[in-house]
Design goal:
Elements lengths: L1 H5 L3 E3 L7 E3 L12 E7 L13 E5 L9 E5 L15 E6 L8 E7 L5 E11 L2 E5 L8 E3 L4 E11 L4
Parallel strand pairs: 3-5
Antiparallel strand pairs: 1-2, 3-4, 5-6, 6-11, 7-8, 7-11, 8-9, 9-10
Amino acid sequence: MRSLEAKGYLELSRGRSRSITLHRRANGRRFSGDTVWAPVVGQNAPPESSAIAEAIELARSMLGKREDVYALKIRGQSMSDALVRDGDVVILARTSAVANGELAAIRVIGKDGHKNLTLKYFYRENGHVRLQPAHPDMPPLFYKPEHVVVHGRVVLVIRQAG
């Protein structure tokens, strides 16, 4: 019990027998209704993966009415002119459809069959999908629609200091 208390899962009331206050569920989520739990996924793991080892607790007021969200840690500088930099965390609303020009997490299948999750501006045009980086030195990426799967729309960016 003391170990669980030290980890923040519960609180033992001193001087009172069998008095326990629970703070977190077995999966680590808080009991508070004022927060939303956003699992953190890697760029090589699908956002629907059940092997989530980390999560971010966010104030519900930051997300409006969105409940089904996840977090993605950003690697690279392709979105630097959109103020999303290496090490930042983006919070995404799960969706399979976005409008042209929206910043989205997209799983792409490369010519070698390798799948990668990327964050880019999304455009459907002329029978293909254009994924546009927000870095002046990086060219757009073009894919056949069947090689692109939208996994979420950016709703919040958490900047890392530095």
